[in-house]
C-alpha cells in the first residue's frame, strides 16, 4: 500500500473508534496506548482467522481415505498392524510412519502428519494430547543368570553390564530419572537406539536392561533367552522399588479432523487389549490388570 493509502485506512479506524491511534506529533509517528491495544486485539483476531481457515479445510480432509499417523517404533511394530486392518474396513487407508517423539511432533506441527502416538510430555499451542495407555517397566536378565541376593541395580551392575537405550530417546530419559530417584549410579557402557540390539546382548548373557512389554513384544524373538522380573523384585534398604510406567499419548490438532480422533482412540484401545489378551500376556507373563487404559471400565 502507498503511504497515502495507509494514512487513509488509519484515519477511517480512528473515526470509527473515536480515538487517536497514532501520535503524529513525533517523527516517525508512534502508536498511542489505544493504538497498541488495537494492535494486540487485531493480532489475535488474525491468528484466529488463520486457524479458522485451516480448521475448516482439515474437517473436509478428515473424510479423505488416507490417514497419516506417525508413532514411536514400539507402537508401530505391535499395534500398528491392528490399526491398519481396522481402518481398511472403514474405507480408510493408513499411512503409518515411525520415528522418535521429537521428530514426530515436529512433523505434526508442520501438518505433515494428522496424528502422532508418542511417549513424551511435549505439547505445543493448538495441539490436543490424549493419554491412551501406560505400561510397566520390567527388568530383563539373561535366562541363565540368577540374581540371588542382589538387591539393587548398582549391585547387579557389578555382575552384569547395564545396557541402556540411547540417551537422546525419551525412554532413556525416563529410566535415567528413575535410577537417580533411587540413588543408582551405574557406569555407562552400552547404549543403543533399538530394542533389538539391546535384547540381543541381554539374551547372549552380556548384561541386563530395563524396558516395557511393547518393546519386548516388538523383539519377541529373544523372549526364550531372557528372564523378566518386575521392578519390585529389587529393593534398597529393605524397600522394594516402586513401579515405573511408560505412557503413550495420541496427539492431533485441536478441533480438526471431525470424528477421526475418537475413532482412532477406540481402535487403539481395542488393538492394545487384543494384543494383551492374545500374545503379550502369554509371552511376557504379566496380568492384564497391570495395563492402564484411562476412561475404560475393566
UniProtKB/TrEMBL annotation:
Keywords: DNA-binding, Transcription, Transcription regulation. It comes from the Bacteria. Residues 1-32 form the HTH lysR-type domain. Transmembrane segments: none annotated. InterPro entries: HTH-type_LysR_regulators, LysR_HTH_N, LysR_subst-bd, WH-like_DNA-bd_sf, WH_DNA-bd_sf. PROSITE patterns: HTH_LYSR. GO terms for molecular function: DNA binding; DNA-binding transcription factor activity. SUPFAM superfamilies: Periplasmic binding protein-like II, Winged helix' DNA-binding domain. One of its GO terms (cellular component) is cytosol. The keyword Transcription regulation applies. Belongs to the LysR transcriptional regulatory family. This is LysR family transcriptional regulator. The lineage of its organism: Bacteria, Pseudomonadati, Pseudomonadota, Betaproteobacteria, Burkholderiales.
